[in-house]
Amino acid sequence: MPYSITVNGAVREVDVDPDTPLLWVIRDNLGLTGTKFGCGVAQCGACTVHVDGQPRRSCALPVSRLGNRQVTTIEGADGPEAKAVQAAWAARDVPQCGYCQSGQVMSAIALLREVKKPDDKAIDLAMNGNICRCATYVRIRAAIHDAAKALEA
Amino acid sequence: MSGSRLALGLAAVAAVTIGAASVRTGAATPEVGLRSVEDFAGIENKRERSLALFAEVGKVIQHPRCLNCHPAGERPSQGDAMTPHNPWVVRGTDGFGAPGMRCATCHSEANFDPARIPGAPKWHLAPIEMAWQGKSLGEICRQIKDHRRNGGMDMARLIHHMGEDELVGWGWHPGAGRTPAPGTQKQFGELFKAWTESGTACPKA
Fold first, then answer.
1. Residues A31 and A70 in one domain
2. With bands split at pLDDT 50, 70 and 90, how would you rate the model's confidence at A139?
3. Domain that holds residue A126
4. Do both A37 and A91 map to the same domain?
5. Residue B87: predicted pLDDT
6. A52: CATH
7. Chain A: which residues have CB within 8 Å of chain B?
8. What residues of A are in contact with residue B176 (Cβ under 8 Å)?
9. Which of A46, B39, B166, B176 fits A38 for a cystine, CB–CB 3.0-4.6 Å?
10. Is the domain of A51 the same as that of A9?
């Protein structure tokens, strides 16, 4: 079935089954492979993208339910929060294997857009659905604090 | 070769055992319907009839499909066994989750069975004052009648909530791997309405 979806500001045409998860469309049909497949059941957060600015597990969202909503993937992440997170991530050397980091970054950006100065609990609540097999959680939390400070300055 | 067969055999036994355990521990049973309002018409004593109607209503109210989203703490439970929701999520200030980890981060407006994710419009938790987990049916009954602990609803709104609310209705269409609430939402709504018309008696316990 044909669908017209907006990803990173561009309208894209895809022809897939209605139940196809958005993640598969992003990766297999559009070639945007920065978003990762981790579990396929919304348990790990590796597939996190933004839908109308809110974090969404793209493995659990069938393309048929997307409608006119705007999708942003890691390739299209932009704005002050995205830049601050990118800089903090690089400065802290956050990733180890890196597999989960696209999802971590997208969740961190979404958090900072809503909560300008998150405390540890707010960070934990927002990020606990993003699992890191290398356990870089301490660096992730520190980098989010760094990004918040940079945005405040 | 024989080792492989043994391993397969053990795996099969384990699967059967796990299956049986999940049936035993699940609060839901494969049963069941609800009795109709007419089934209670023969109870002449009004208070007795009211109590019997609420006991029938309680089969739904105390079903995991309802209790999971009426938690006594900040975190909902999930599944027929009512295990803590995984990942860790909280009610948040509006019942729709914490900033950056909203219910809609994973749940959409309908079930998505390929990923085993339930969903319905306005997927969210009941407010803390409407917590039902850990309470007896009598306690829940008195809570439902208390404006301060029922979302400020009068009986008309409660009847609508129970019988027609879309999120409540999800309990009878919960998607793959989850036992539906007993009966139908229509039957449940009729029983609840009949209870309100019979004097809203609450069990002591």
1. yes
2. very high
3. 80-152
4. no
5. 96
6. 3.10.20.30
7. 19, 21, 40-43, 45, 48, 54-57, 59-62, 65, 107, 110-111, 114-115, 118, 122, 125-129
8. none
9. A46
10. yes
pLDDT digits (tens, 9 = 90+) for A12-22: 999 999 999 99
Q: Is the same domain home to A94 and A119?
A: yes
What's the pLDDT at A104? 98
Q: Note the pLDDT tens digit of each residue in A20-52.
A: 999 999 999 999 999 999 999 999 999 999 999
> CA B115 to CA B43: how far, in whole Å?
47
The whole-number average pLDDT for the span A57-83 is 97
Q: Which amino acid is at A61?
A: L
- Percentage with pLDDT > 70 across chain A: 100
CB contact under 8 A, A60 and B117: yes
Residues in chain B: 205
Q: What is the mean predicted confidence (pLDDT) over A132-148?
A: 98
Out of A57, A115, A126, whose CB is closest to B106?
A57
Whether A44 and A101 share a structural domain: no
Ranges of residues in chain B with a pLDDT under 50 are 1-30
Residues of B in contact with A41 (CB under 8 A): 115-117
Regarding whether A89 and A66 lie in a shared domain, the answer is: no
Asked if the Cβ–Cβ distance from B102 to A54 is below 8 Å, we say yes
Contact A65 B98 (CB under 8 A): no
Of A61, A76, A91, the position where a domain reaches its end is: A76
Cβ pair B112:A115 closer than 8 A: no
- Residue of A43, A62, A129 lying closest to B112 (CB–CB): A62
Residue range A51-74: mean pLDDT, rounded? 97
How many CB atoms neighbour CB A67 within 10 A? Answer: 11
Arithmetic mean of pLDDT, A43-65: 98
A130 vs A140: CA distance, rounded Å: 11
